[in-house]
């Protein structure tokens, strides 16, 4: 069912790929054995030989070797952007075309829900 879909490989520091795949499928519009689908996107926790986009949460779970257009490598930093609390968030950012992190404003801490469609429409180059 992945025909005409934008293939997005996903990795996360907090979750091994089998569990991450289960989470992706839980929140997808529909899924099959290999992909979780959301509109024109097909997400997978498997790191494929080639993909249209690479999405990283916090940091990769393991080393990643894939072919992907550099402009389509995106990272979400899920912790507050405070260097003294989470210094790892500020290392290696140059490897991502776009990184999104939450900053603390007046010490109010909360996570924002960002739509996949909004993020990918502003950054995916096909």
* Gyration radius from CA atoms, angstroms: 15 Å
Strand fraction equals 25-35%
The helix-and-strand class reads: alpha/beta
Largest sheet, order of strands side by side?
Answer: 2-3-4-1-5-6-7
Helix content: 10-25%
> What would the average pLDDT be, to the nearest integer?
76
Summarize this structure as a short list of keywords or feature phrases.
seven-stranded mixed sheet, 7 strands, 14% helix, 126 residues, 2 helices
Helix and strand arrangement:
Blueprint (H helix, E strand, L loop, with lengths): L5 E7 L4 H10 L3 E2 L4 E3 L2 E4 L8 E5 L15 E8 L17 E5 L13 H8 L3
Parallel strand pairs: 1-4, 1-5, 5-6, 6-7
Antiparallel strand pairs: 2-3, 3-4
Architecture overview:
Helices cover 14% and strands 27% of the residues. With 126 residues, the chain is an alpha/beta fold. Strands 2-3-4-1-5-6-7 form a seven-stranded mixed beta sheet, with helices on one face. The longest helix is centred in the first third of the chain and has 10 residues, at 17-26. The chain is globular and about 45 Å long. Residues 106-126 have low confidence and may be disordered.
């Amino acid at each position: 069912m992945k025909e005409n879909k934008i293939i997005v490989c996903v990795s996360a520091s907090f979750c091994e790929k089998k569990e991450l795949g289960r989470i992706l499928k839980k929140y997808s519009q529909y899924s099959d054995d290999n992909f979780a689908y959301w509109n024109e996107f097909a997400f997978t926790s498997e790191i494929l030989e080639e993909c249209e986009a690479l999405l990283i949460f916090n940091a990769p779970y393991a080393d990643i070797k894939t072919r992907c257009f550099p402009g389509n490598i995106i990272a979400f930093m899920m912790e507050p952007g405070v260097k003294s609390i989470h210094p790892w968030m500020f290392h290696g950012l140059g490897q991502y075309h776009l990184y999104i992190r939450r900053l603390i404003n007046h010490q109010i801490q909360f996570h924002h829900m960002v739509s996949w469609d909004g993020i990918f429409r502003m950054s995916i180059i096909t």
